[in-house]
Amino acid sequence: MAALNPGDEHDRFVAWASDHGVEVDGIAPAKFVGRGMGIVAARDIKAGERIIFVDKSSLITVTAPTVRACKLPQNVTVHGKLAAFLAMQYHNADSDHRLWQGVWPKEEEFRSILPYYWPKSLQEYIPHAGKVLLIKQQQKLDKDWQTLRAQLQPSVDRDLFAYTWLIVNTRTFYWEYPDLPNSHPRLPKKRFQLTADDCYAMCPFMDYFNHSDVGCDPQHGPSGYSVIADRDYEAGEEVYFSYGSHTNDFLLVEYGFTLPTNKCDSLPLDHLIIPKLSASQVEALKEDGFYGNYTLTKDAPHICHRAQAVLRLMNLPTRRYTMFVSGNDDGAADQHAIDSALVALLTEFSREIVETLEAVDSVAGGVVEEQQSRTTRSSKRKSQVSENMATSNGQAVMEQKATLLERWKQIREIVNAALRSLDE
Ligand SMILES: C[S@@+](CC[C@H](N)C(=O)[O-])C[C@H]1O[C@@H](n2cnc3c(N)ncnc32)[C@H](O)[C@@H]1O
């Protein structure tokens, strides 16, 4: 259930936005239990109606004069530059985006939602694909901080920078700079040279929308962003759009949530397959372009072509594998043997899942106690404040644990669905 009037700070922001190039039609921000803000239909909306337009002049990008005025080092990433700008402005009561900043989730909320902040003993149980992403995220943030710290300290400390870096990570949109050749010395002159890492924009009001695997498609053009309703909506319904074709492991690490059903979900099988390969098999797969990136999905045929190939190399005479990867044989004659090999692999995966579910349950209990005792011990007196902190840490860990258990149950369901259909 959504609260249609989420509070004064949101009213003030909406009024500010409408004076700053944001045209809202038929939608409103609303507060949802357990997942912050989102957008609801404020009246019945018809498919094809434009529900929001945001003029490019209101975006925060590296080309904005206020960002350029910060004179940040040339070698820092676009992500780092935007995070530094937001952090430098964070305590400035006169900053242009003060009212917008006031409706973002607070650092405290991020601490419980985003795996970046989770205790190490819980991060350890993030599924393999998510852990790889989390390490990359930590490395990118660290590198940006190292490049910028001399310029930012002492007014901006690492905690504030991490928070604004994660605000950028969870709230930016893909932006292609309509006037690219002259936009910024840090950006390439030619459009085809732009990479995804260059194309970040903070976009007021658009960053209220929550993600779904189906929903409206945000559009960007030379004048700004717009969203067109993908279907009819009744007043009060939540309106989502898609952040992209993301798996739940990606959503968990980058945004701090998973979707209960997600048509884009898949699981990597690399951590189960790669350790079983001999050196010569690795060499052959690399030569043929079939090394790694093996995935499992809930729906038939369950595994990707690359996984079909590697299982053939591991379980059949080499010539059968060669015929398959060269495209001279569709592999149908061997499918039964490959399905049996896959069942063995997934049975091994099932054991890992059961063990992980049990481990998350017990580790999380330990973390709550550890955090509570650490928080209460660190205060001189066992004051109400420290008790409240301990309780909120405890609650955060319980929520993190629930998110993690939920993800492992989704993984179990994908594996079981594949096992059931292979058994038919
Ligand atoms: C662009 S913001 C969307 C607005 C945000 N909910 C807020 O309170 O301001 C992205 C963040 O919203 C949350 N979010 C987005 N889609 C969600 C969903 N389907 N379920 C739960 N949380 C979601 C996640 O915390 C994510 O990091």
UniProtKB/TrEMBL annotation:
Residue stretches making up the SET domain: 20-244
Location of region: Disordered: 369-393
InterPro entries listed in its UniProt record: SET_dom, SET_dom_sf, SETD3_SETD6_MTase, SETD4_SET
Pfam family, one: SET
Signal peptide interval: none
Gene Ontology molecular function: protein-lysine N-methyltransferase activity
Name of protein: SET domain-containing protein
Organism listed in the record: Aaosphaeria arxii CBS 175.79
